[in-house]
Amino acid sequence: MKFSGHTTTAFDPDLQSLAQLIAEMGGLAERQIVEAIQALIKRDGARGQRVIAADAAIDFMQRAIEERAIELIARRQPMAADLREVVAILRIANELERIGDLAKNIAKRVVLVDKEQLPRRSMRGLNHMATLMLAQLRDVLDSLAHSDVGKAMDVWRHDEDVDRLCASLFQEVLTAMMEDPGTITLGIHLLFCIKNLERMADHATNIAESVYYLARGETLTRAPKPDVNSMPALALSSY
Amino acid sequence: MKFSGHTTTAFDPDLQSLAQLIAEMGGLAERQIVEAIQALIKRDGARGQRVIAADAAIDFMQRAIEERAIELIARRQPMAADLREVVAILRIANELERIGDLAKNIAKRVVLVDKEQLPRRSMRGLNHMATLMLAQLRDVLDSLAHSDVGKAMDVWRHDEDVDRLCASLFQEVLTAMMEDPGTITLGIHLLFCIKNLERMADHATNIAESVYYLARGETLTRAPKPDVNSMPALALSSY
Questions:
Q1: Which A residues, 27 through 86, put their C-beta within 8 Å of a C-beta on chain B?
Q2: How far is CA B104 from CA A103, B30, B38, B131, B173, in A?
């Protein structure tokens, strides 16, 4: 990670060490998402439990990054561009921690749907959404590692795709619930899982904004969301 | 806010100014919750819109606190206890920003349930839960302002009450959905609102943990510590 174009200083190894921690934390978050979705699809309670337990590692890393970053600021008194990098690292660690939490939330539902029949069609949809979301996360972590603002902007723009998929999945699950009220409980669990994935993608988008901030020194403001009231299913899922 | 027992230094006015910002941000978050719930209960779309618009002020305050705190660290190079106060302020600002987001999420649903019949019983339950949650937030902000660790611990312990109320409300809404599938869409909106309140209470609990951290210099842990050896970057370095 190297955006600010400053000349190499003694500060760099510290920043690189923080960037390395962020990369590892990102890898951990990715793995948690994969594991949580797999546990859900396969209704594998033990796997879900491992995801729940592993979330503590992500929380721990966030705290460690925070403490090191702040200790670094206090010790080095960095100037503007360096300071911006440390601030961005703090923000990104925070977003990754939230993503980890959301993966844990999905994992917590695994045991709750354990004995019920998961509809194949919805599970395929959920898997598809998870794949899209993971690609967003991987791309944004990549854009961070390689200082690729264009790639970060792509992630930022593609958040809409995740939102659209989320809306259509919501509609599908909702229809199933209405057709067979016996599936309501299961449907609610699925809706929360879908929503968790959608929020993860939002956090990936926030990371894209931090990558932009790092490179340009200014905040990227988000375009207004479409008027959801004309789109009932989208309206249902978008908050 | 004064926990660390250091002698008065030139650092104090800066910290006090940050603490003042946190108190203001907390007040804003409280107001947002009240307004969002009232807008929902009264199905007042305009009021909901004002809550949505006002969230930007909370986001702005978080960024402002973050920037000032970090500028303060860079300029003053505080020692351990002072540094801990600044870190706690950063964390608390982050929690309050998340609470604001959740209030906004509730407000966004106001227009969506606008034309539907909200069941009185569930709305009373939701209002009750919001009251309990607000008490938690007020108490924890109070514990912060008066360095009252005992009060913070009370908040931490009472999170269970919110969780219990959340579970019983969920069951109630779920039953209504099963009895009358025509209420499924409305029910889903309510479930997400209930869940948002429950998560706000979690953030209040996190603030309680920060108050504890400020006073004692150690983290109040809810789960066993992770195995650091599974985290290469951390294990490699001096942690």
A1: 28, 54, 56-57, 60-61, 63-64, 66-67, 70-71, 73-75, 77-78, 83, 86
A2: 22, 12, 13, 17, 22
